[in-house]
Design a protein that fits this description.
Length: 607
């Protein structure tokens, strides 16, 4: 029987050498074998004349090396002896190999299951993939449509029901969607319910086909495994179509006051609303996407691309009335176009948006809706206060929205005795017939122009209804306007005079002449009467000296003991206008003073 091995003997092994320690008669041996720098431990035994080796682990040669110590390897070898006796007559090594194979199979099955789970698309994945497909379908309208669809999904599904959104799309049942639709129906919103139902139904229909479309699977790498559409059991709710139309009084009031109040900060919003009326109530979302390249001044037409529905977009040629032409010609004067020199001819044919914000981006339909809502709120508040003052009960009326313009324009065309076929042509609509879809490819521009003249004549009669338009001012000369301003002792903003009925260009010309005559002066960006600026400046200085933001800036400045340039403070994050104002106030208080082109701390005691 071999004596027990010691660590020194094992460590002294050279590459290719081995040493063994007997575990008892018939129990096999513990064998250590060195290959290069590694010493491995084996349990060896005999089957007849055939030697069998089962690897245990690597021998731990030092505290920093990996493996097991001699005592642990000896215990592991004795465990193998006991297991071999227990398995007899089965062979130990074959048993261990089968165990390893089973473990590998389990690991592979677990890996495949995890891989399958990772490729399972959740309901939220399905919604995003469907929305991205809509975006890719139409380059122009896709972004807008995607925003509308995802906005509905986020509002009614993803945020209120996060667990449902994370659920595998193929496991979503109709009972799961009941919790989505119930709150909407409790609010008695059938239109909202029908819209969400359509979006979800189209989304699941897309998911059913997406698994079998290699192009779609490659994009998102998900499998939805949807067997049926869970939205189908939910019936479409009958909803009463909105029948709100603007009355003639509302049209006149809107046309008169649209450039004032909340629309005054950007005239393009007001002009766009007028353009929607002048263009026969075509969809505002389509008109807002018009570019200058869509306008044909020679033919007095514009090209409207209708992306509504499936298939290729429908292109329509719509005539421009004199009213619409006047609006287009006045657009460039409301914004600073870099390419603009004398008139709007410089931007005709470019890809610039026809109606833009002050930053040159396309008008936001959401912002426009918000402005209209604020406009309606202001009107309602005024009427409520008026009714309260007069001691009568104010009868609330349903508010109008941008979507009501199309219905109102249709009503105007009906009153103008324009036949249905021509109404459809002007509003870029089809009656669904085979003829209109496939055979009638003519633009029929002559018929459209004739119908457009009738519509515009009716719109003129509505706007010029006696007693509703602002009365024409008696003063129609510079001298009369100048005397009126001097006698009143106050010069209002130009838009106030426009609201009273004056022409904007005339008022602008008269005010400039008063500036040249020394009657008015510039105070910041405003025109004021001579001497008014000094009085107002004194009041403003007293007001701003008390402001907390100025006091904080002054305190930081004095504590630092270092005066930087205005540009340095702007770079630090302060507002450009505030820094300039604060420097002026510091000079008024005597904290700083001018030294050439720079500012320094004042050498005298501050006031």
């Amino acid at each position: 029987m071999d004596s027990k091995l010691k660590d020194a003997e094992i460590k002294s092994l050279k590459s290719g050498q081995q040493k063994k320690e007997s575990l008892g008669r018939g129990n096999g041996s513990l064998i250590f074998r060195r290959v290069n720098k590694t010493i491995s431990a084996y349990y060896g035994y005999w089957i007849g004349k055939q030697s069998v080796f089962v690897k245990l682990d690597d021998y731990k040669q030092s505290a920093k090396s990996t493996g097991k110590t001699l005592s642990k390897l000896r215990d592991q070898a004795l465990d193998m002896v006991a297991l071999r006796k227990q398995l007899a007559p089965l062979d130990l090594k074959e048993y261990l190999q089968e165990q390893d194979a089973d473990r590998l199979k389990q690991q592979e099955a677990k890996r495949l299951k995890q891989q399958k789970e990772s490729t399972k698309g959740s309901l939220q994945d399905l919604m995003k993939s469907y929305a991205n497909t809509l975006k890719a379908r139409h380059k122009e309208r896709g972004t807008e449509q995607t925003f509308d669809v995802m906005s509905n999904f986020r509002t009614f599904v993803i945020k209120p029901f996060p667990d449902l959104a994370k659920k595998h799309a193929g496991d979503v049942q109709s009972s799961d969607l009941s919790q989505v639709f119930e709150p909407i129906m409790k609010r008695d919103k059938p239109g909202m319910y029908n819209q969400l139902r359509r979006y979800l139904s189209a989304c699941f229909n897309y998911g059913i086909k997406a698994d079998y479309n290699p192009r779609e699977t490659h994009k998102h790498g998900k499998k939805f495994n949807i067997k049926f559409n869970p939205v189908m059991p939910f019936p479409e709710e009958p909803s009463t179509p909105r029948a709100r139309e603007l009355s003639h009084e509302e049209i006149r009031a809107l046309w008169r006051d649209i450039d004032l109040g909340i629309f005054a900060d950007n005239e393009q919003y007001g002009l766009f609303i007028k353009f929607c009326f002048a263009c026969f109530g075509n969809r505002p979302t389509q008109l807002s996407r018009l570019k200058w390249s869509d306008i044909n001044l020679e033919d007095r037409t514009f090209t409207l691309i209708d992306y509504k529905g499936k298939g290729k977009p429908r292109i329509s040629i719509i005539p421009l009335t004199d009213r619409a032409m006047d609006i287009i010609q006045s657009l460039p004067s409301t914004l600073d176009y870099p390419c603009l020199t004398d008139n709007y001819m410089d931007i005709i044919g470019t890809d610039k948006p026809l109606f833009t914000t002050k930053l040159g981006t396309v008008l936001s339909y959401a912002v426009l809706e918000r402005k209209i809502k604020e406009h309606n709120n202001a009107i309602m508040m005024f009427k409520e206060r008026k009714a309260e003052y007069e001691g009568v009960v104010y009868q609330h009326k349903e508010r109008w929205t941008m979507k009501d313009f199309r219905r109102t324009a249709t009503s105007i065309m009906t009153r103008s005795r324009i036949i249905k076929e021509h109404r459809y042509l002007l509003q870029s609509r089809t009656d669904g017939s085979i003829e209109s879809r496939h055979y009638d490819v003519s633009d029929r521009l002559d018929e459209k122009r004739e119908a457009a003249e009738k519509y515009d004549a009716m719109l003129v009669s509505i706007l010029e209804d006696k007693g509703e338009l602002p009365k024409k001012p008696v003063i129609d000369s510079y001298a009369g306007f100048r005397d009126m301003v001097v006698e009143s002792g106050k010069l209002h903003i130009i838009k106030d005079y426009v609201r009273e009925g004056y022409r904007k260009k005339e008022v602008q010309q008269w005010v400039r002449q008063m500036l040249a005559d020394g009657i008015v002066e510039m105070y910041g960006r405003m025109y004021v009467l001579k001497g008014f600026g000094d009085q107002n400046e004194k009041k403003l200085i007293e007001k701003h000296l008390k402001r907390k933001d100025y006091k904080d800036f002054k305190k930081v400045l004095i504590e630092a003991g270092v005066l930087k340039s205005q540009e340095a403070y702007i770079i630090d994050g302060y507002s450009n206008l505030k820094v300039k104002r604060w420097f002026r106030l510091l000079k008024v208080e005597g904290v700083i003073e001018r030294a050439g082109r720079a500012h320094i701390f004042s050498q005298t005691e501050p006031a």
